[in-house]
From TrEMBL:
UniProtKB keywords: Cell membrane, Cobalt, Cobalt transport, Ion transport, Membrane, Nickel, Nickel transport, Transmembrane, Transmembrane helix, Transport
Pfam families assigned: NicO
Family matches, as PANTHER family: NICKEL/COBALT EFFLUX SYSTEM RCNA, NICKEL_COBALT EFFLUX SYSTEM RCNA
Protein name: Nickel/cobalt efflux system
BP terms from Gene Ontology: cobalt ion transport; response to cobalt ion; response to nickel cation
Cellular-component GO terms for this entry: plasma membrane
Membrane association type: Multi-pass membrane protein
Coiled coil: none
Amino acid sequence: MTDILAFLVALQDDIQRSVADQISAFSASGDWLALLGAMPLAVVFGMAHALTPGHNKLVLATFVLGERLGLLKAFATSMLLSATHIGSAVAIGFGANWLVSRTITQAGRAPFLETTSQVLLAAIAVWMVWRAIWPTRSHEHPGLFAVAAGLVPCPLTLFTVVMATSMGSPEAGVIFALAMLVGVGSVLSLVGLAAHVGAARMSGLVGRFELAGRVILGLGGTMLLMLVITPHIQRLLE
């Protein structure tokens, strides 16, 4: 596993340098064909990036499993999470200087957005547990979950958008972000769809009893809450 992670990190570094060179060349020549020709590499970049730790893959799988989302909802939730993750980076990259100076403190870090995301995810987790204990006829809200989970901006997209903008080629940053969305979205969609299949298999095993569904929902909410609060508990214990 360590070797695979090291390979993915090295692959990201190589592709990032190549993409940076392509954007720099586009800024100098304005050759759209050359830029578009490099976008398949950016899609691979997004896939490799999404396979590294993070991106709320476990959180996504937990939510899809706990809420027993249908196939289309699982796919839509995965793509919306990806779009929010990439889109927030583009928004910050193109945002006013005051926004950047107030949200970005370290490379790829946005503490305010991270805190907001964690608070929203914790609220969703508590709500899932509440529904498991006191079931109602209300429906799940995968859109809210997807936005909350994807709110933290993608640091690599942010870096590239800022670089492209500084070179006077913001359109190159947008094209790169779209390619990243395809790559990240494809990986997270596979995670969401795999969780959907797992939920369907579990439902088949435990039957169609309402209690079993409530147990799955409650466990999903509890796991999601633990994923959110565990890093904070670890920091307090250090």
